[in-house]
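SAMPLE LOG
Freezer: B-3
Tube label: C17
Construct: single chain, 212 aa
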Amino acid sequence: MGNQDNNENRFASSELTMGQMNAIVKKLGGHDNVLRFLRGELIVSEPTSSWREQDGVIYFSVTSDGTTGEQWITRLENKGFSVHDHAKSILRSPNFKTTSSITYEMAVFKGMFEDRITKNIHFKAKNRRFSVPNAEVACLIREKFSDKELEAMGLSRIVIMHGPIIEDFGGNLVLSVELNGIRFWVTTDYIEPNCNLSRKSGFAFVVSQVKT
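STRUCTURE (predicted):
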């Protein structure tokens, strides 16, 4: 009984160091916010993520809004993103199609598996009944996620596995979103059936799309 009484009377904070206690006060925003928290005036909640990972596949959704390729260039650059010249060529191509009010449920394979040949990645997606995305999702993904979030996913870039578009510089390219220490990039990758893609890349496909 004595030990049980001691356990019940022990302060809940007894196993925390002074440094940890101080860090909690700072996290809450200082002494006044600690008192607000104790009075029930300040709510602390777990951060919610806009993506989830399951079995090496990252899932999230994006919704189109009818923005044209040319408008995307302006929109992204005005928000501080960098759009590579090759990516601009694709965005200005007549083969770049836009949609409006379509919610895409996306799946991104993390490139940790051994066989990262382009045609085999498409085969892997087909086996899961994932479909080829519209190129516009590159812009939607870039706007949705910061480089810090890409890093949290364990990726250096997300390659959008849409049908290759021949741009002004003469290559079959797909759009990609790249983690860069200086700039937030929308860039491109050359895609051929036998390309061997990077282990740190993710490969984006569509699980489903719904008109909203």
